[in-house]
Specification:
Blueprint: H1 9-21, E1 23-24, H2 26-32, H3 39-51, E2 55-60, E3 63-68, H4 72-87, H5 92-103, H6 109-128
Antiparallel strand pairs: 1-3, 2-3
Helix pairs in contact: 1-2, 2-3
Length: about 130
Amino acid sequence: MPEPETLSRRERQVMDAIYELGEATAKDIQRKLPDPPSYSAVRAVLTRLVELGKLKYREQGPRYLYSATASKHKLRQAALRKIVDTFFEGSPLNTINALLGSSASELTQSELDELEQLVAQAREKNRGA
Protein backbone atom coordinates (compact mmCIF):
# COMPACT_ATOMS: atom_id res chain seq x y z
CA MET A 1 0.00 0.00 0.00
CA PRO A 2 1.52 3.37 -0.97
CA GLU A 3 2.50 6.01 1.55
CA PRO A 4 -0.16 8.69 2.24
CA GLU A 5 1.94 11.37 0.54
CA THR A 6 1.71 9.50 -2.76
CA LEU A 7 -1.98 10.38 -2.96
CA SER A 8 -2.93 13.34 -5.10
CA ARG A 9 -4.57 16.39 -3.57
CA ARG A 10 -7.98 15.25 -4.83
CA GLU A 11 -7.45 11.72 -3.55
CA ARG A 12 -6.63 13.10 -0.10
CA GLN A 13 -9.76 15.27 -0.23
CA VAL A 14 -11.86 12.22 -1.08
CA MET A 15 -10.28 10.26 1.79
CA ASP A 16 -11.00 13.15 4.17
CA ALA A 17 -14.63 13.17 3.03
CA ILE A 18 -14.90 9.41 3.55
CA TYR A 19 -13.48 9.68 7.07
CA GLU A 20 -15.91 12.47 7.87
CA LEU A 21 -18.91 10.63 6.43
CA GLY A 22 -17.94 7.09 7.43
CA GLU A 23 -19.62 5.46 4.46
CA ALA A 24 -20.82 7.38 1.43
CA THR A 25 -21.94 7.32 -2.17
CA ALA A 26 -20.01 9.08 -4.93
CA LYS A 27 -22.66 11.82 -4.90
CA ASP A 28 -22.27 12.31 -1.11
CA ILE A 29 -18.51 12.61 -1.55
CA GLN A 30 -18.86 15.01 -4.47
CA ARG A 31 -20.96 17.35 -2.27
CA LYS A 32 -18.21 17.39 0.38
CA LEU A 33 -15.35 18.29 -1.96
CA PRO A 34 -14.08 21.82 -2.34
CA ASP A 35 -14.48 23.03 -5.90
CA PRO A 36 -16.23 19.73 -6.74
CA PRO A 37 -15.27 17.96 -9.94
CA SER A 38 -17.80 16.18 -12.15
CA TYR A 39 -19.54 13.07 -10.89
CA SER A 40 -17.57 10.90 -13.33
CA ALA A 41 -14.29 12.42 -12.08
CA VAL A 42 -15.27 11.56 -8.50
CA ARG A 43 -16.07 7.99 -9.60
CA ALA A 44 -12.66 7.77 -11.29
CA VAL A 45 -10.90 8.86 -8.09
CA LEU A 46 -12.95 6.37 -6.06
CA THR A 47 -12.02 3.58 -8.47
CA ARG A 48 -8.34 4.47 -8.15
CA LEU A 49 -8.55 4.51 -4.33
CA VAL A 50 -10.22 1.09 -4.39
CA GLU A 51 -7.41 -0.20 -6.65
CA LEU A 52 -4.82 1.23 -4.23
CA GLY A 53 -6.52 -0.59 -1.36
CA LYS A 54 -7.46 2.64 0.43
CA LEU A 55 -11.21 2.17 -0.03
CA LYS A 56 -13.65 -0.69 -0.22
CA TYR A 57 -17.25 -0.64 -1.34
CA ARG A 58 -20.48 -2.54 -1.01
CA GLU A 59 -23.49 -2.49 -3.26
CA GLN A 60 -26.79 -1.18 -1.96
CA GLY A 61 -29.28 -1.54 -4.74
CA PRO A 62 -27.96 0.42 -7.72
CA ARG A 63 -25.53 2.45 -5.55
CA TYR A 64 -22.05 1.77 -4.28
CA LEU A 65 -21.29 2.77 -0.70
CA TYR A 66 -17.60 3.49 -0.13
CA SER A 67 -15.69 3.28 3.14
CA ALA A 68 -12.04 3.31 4.19
CA THR A 69 -10.13 0.05 4.54
CA ALA A 70 -8.01 1.33 7.43
CA SER A 71 -9.38 2.89 10.57
CA LYS A 72 -8.79 6.54 11.24
CA HIS A 73 -6.96 5.49 14.41
CA LYS A 74 -4.50 3.35 12.43
CA LEU A 75 -3.81 6.14 9.96
CA ARG A 76 -3.43 8.67 12.77
CA GLN A 77 -0.86 6.42 14.46
CA ALA A 78 1.10 5.95 11.21
CA ALA A 79 1.07 9.69 10.45
CA LEU A 80 2.17 10.56 13.97
CA ARG A 81 4.99 8.00 13.85
CA LYS A 82 6.21 9.56 10.60
CA ILE A 83 6.14 13.06 12.14
CA VAL A 84 7.96 11.90 15.26
CA ASP A 85 10.62 10.16 13.15
CA THR A 86 11.00 13.03 10.67
CA PHE A 87 10.92 16.10 12.91
CA PHE A 88 11.77 14.85 16.41
CA GLU A 89 14.56 12.30 15.81
CA GLY A 90 12.14 9.49 16.66
CA SER A 91 11.79 10.77 20.23
CA PRO A 92 8.33 10.86 21.82
CA LEU A 93 9.81 13.07 24.56
CA ASN A 94 11.00 15.68 22.03
CA THR A 95 7.55 15.58 20.43
CA ILE A 96 5.75 16.07 23.73
CA ASN A 97 8.12 18.90 24.69
CA ALA A 98 7.36 20.66 21.41
CA LEU A 99 3.61 20.25 21.89
CA LEU A 100 3.64 21.39 25.49
CA GLY A 101 6.01 24.24 24.78
CA SER A 102 3.63 25.72 22.24
CA SER A 103 0.34 25.05 24.00
CA ALA A 104 0.90 24.25 27.68
CA SER A 105 -0.95 27.37 28.83
CA GLU A 106 -3.99 26.30 26.77
CA LEU A 107 -4.44 22.97 28.59
CA THR A 108 -7.30 22.69 31.06
CA GLN A 109 -6.87 21.19 34.52
CA SER A 110 -8.77 18.13 33.30
CA GLU A 111 -6.37 17.70 30.37
CA LEU A 112 -3.37 18.07 32.69
CA ASP A 113 -4.86 15.41 34.97
CA GLU A 114 -5.32 13.13 31.97
CA LEU A 115 -1.67 13.67 30.98
CA GLU A 116 -0.58 12.72 34.50
CA GLN A 117 -2.65 9.57 34.22
CA LEU A 118 -1.06 8.68 30.87
CA VAL A 119 2.43 9.17 32.35
CA ALA A 120 1.51 6.95 35.31
CA GLN A 121 0.28 4.25 32.92
CA ALA A 122 3.51 4.48 30.89
CA ARG A 123 5.54 4.09 34.10
CA GLU A 124 3.49 1.06 35.06
CA LYS A 125 4.06 -0.53 31.62
CA ASN A 126 7.82 0.08 31.91
CA ARG A 127 7.93 -1.61 35.31
CA GLY A 128 6.21 -4.67 33.88
CA ALA A 129 8.47 -4.84 30.83
